Amino acid sequence: MSDPTDENVAIIGNPVLLQRGEPLIQALRSVRVAGVLASTVAIGSGSWSASIPVPDECALLYVIARGRCVGGTFDPATMVDLSAGDILLFPHPGRYILSERRGIAPVPLEDMLEEVLGGIEGVEGRWKSLFSSPFTIAGAEAGDPVVAITALRLFFDHGLPAVLLRGLPPFVHLPGFATRHGPFVEAILRQVIGQGEEGLSGQGAATRLAEALLVKCLSAFLADFADKRPGFGRGLRDPFIAKAIGAIQSRPNLNWTLAAMSRSAGLSRSAFTDRFRAAMEMTPTEFLTAVRMARATDMLENGKMSIAQIAEMIGYGSEAAFNRAFRRWNGSPPGALRRSSLTAGGQKPDD
């Protein structure tokens, strides 16, 4: 018989301790948004179609607040019908379309923005205007908009959250998500825009709020749709691969050789490697590196540990080995990330 005292202690303890065996929760905790731009778009009754660029290390999230439109890739067959309450996420670099209907030649979004922002001086001034002033097209100035959309442009640190995004389709359509989670979505968007109106000083809070919405959307997609295609969701639904994922995420500091990862899954090395690659679209070693670097990035940005301590915490035998691995993954050494994080937080880096 369990001790009720122990159960009560667990109830008021750190919830993270109860989630260590849940690979999806661990992966969602690794999502880090580094910056966000937001704008509201009011669209009138005229004809319209936008060609939308998504750069590297970026995702776009559209919340349809009113009306109907279509969106997707340049292949009309892949486009989906969107209506009020839907969310559309573009998680990969490329160009996509948001349009009144299929078959309309799109106008580059950059040209549309230049018409609206061209007279505003300075980068921060344009940022503030994006957050605070509705972006109107297709005659919306003449009356109530036919379509209303809130757009979030989310920027990531290098490689994050690659494990989750890598297996996603070209776009993720979540029908009715903003309706089912109305109070949550409305509060997040209102606060993101409010913080963004403060300019650069509001980015810290705005990014964390946008991050919460992205995590909620990813969680919903992975729970309901991701088993239909390769990627993190399918890996979680393979009981053997899920064991390895959970073990690696719980203890990334261990000496995770391919043999050790295979044993944690209960498979031979060849069977594990083939099964992991088929489910996750990456090798076990690539996944291990992604988990370790996500953990390291979080500690570099938010912790007080030395780089040598971080190296030990995530499984590197020396600070030099960690420095080399981090530079290969990020393009710059861990010390540079720590210094930039301290500077952004108003602290003076130690020399």
From TrEMBL:
Q: Name one GO molecular function term.
A: DNA-binding transcription factor activity
Could you confirm whether the keyword Secreted appears in this record? no
For this UniProt record, the keywords arranged alphabetically read as follows: DNA-binding, Transcription, Transcription regulation
Domain HTH araC/xylS-type: from-to ranges: 242-340
Pfam families the record matches: Cupin_6, HTH_18
UniProt-listed InterPro entries: AraC_lig, AraC_XylS_family_regulators, Homeodomain-like_sf, HTH_AraC, HTH_AraC-typ_CS
Q: What is this protein called?
A: Transcriptional regulator, AraC family
